Give the backbone structure.
Amino acid sequence: MVVKHCPPEFKADAVALCESRPGATVRSVAADLGVSPETLRNWVRAAGASRPRGRRAGEPTEPPTPLEAESAALRKKVRELEGEREILRKAAKYFAGERRW
């Protein structure tokens, strides 16, 4: 592994470039600059200019609509209930197997 020490000016320019390109991903900007995508991602985080997950630079960050929020809450509840059901199913199998003499 080769460790490059980049000057702070280069890092600042790289972060600015990453944020100024609306359709670009961190991976594509890193490839253009010849640095690792994870390195560029770390620079962006350190600069405090990180993007929200799942969004690209330049996309507006809108709060979810009430319907989206309710849908997300319901999906979370379904995951919880499915997990509980699976635990109960495993417990029932365990105790049913224990009763066989």
User: Anything to note?
Assistant: The domain at 1-54 is CATH 1.10.10.60 (Arc Repressor Mutant, subunit A). Residues 61 and 92 are 46 Å apart (CA to CA). The chain has four helices and no strands. The first helix runs from residue 8 to 20.
